[in-house]
Amino acid sequence: MTLLLISNIPCWLIPLLVGVICAILGYLLGKLLGGGNNETSNEIDVDVYKNRISKLEADLEACKANKKSTFSGGNSSGGSAAASLTAVAPKQSSGTVAVAFDAASAKLFFGKTIKQDDLTVVEGIGPKIKELFHNHDITTWAGLADCTVEKCLEVLKSGGKRFEIHKPGTWPEQAKMAALGQWQKLKEWQDSLDGGK
What we know:
elongated; mainly alpha
């Protein structure tokens, strides 16, 4: 009886049914395994890049304004432009200038919410060491970026023997990356570090 029922089905119908079932299963598996999240991730990527572009444009404008103020001050001393630059140079080297903090970009690379100027973002700095830096008026990434390794060692020594074992050799550079919003570069570097060393 079953053989008779199967023999009555046209030969082309069985491959067609198998194909339709496979297509439906493939579509559902694709949706289930993340194929539907592309629009959301593309929107996040676009927003991150738009923020980066606006930061870079703001930095460019700040550089242009700085350049104009450097050269437009006039040269009343009668000296050359190089002498004018040397007189202004100490003002320019006053420290790291942080860009506007973008929490979404930081979260994208670190996978967690990052608070602005949280020194524990720097690998090797925990809550207690952060507190030591705060006691020495170093409360921002830019402030830590402007510290020398020797200054970091002094801060650690102020906490006692248990803090002297830490190696702050990379901390200022990590803080500089955070201050400049270079989250991908910072994350990649931290992945290669061993406890901030």
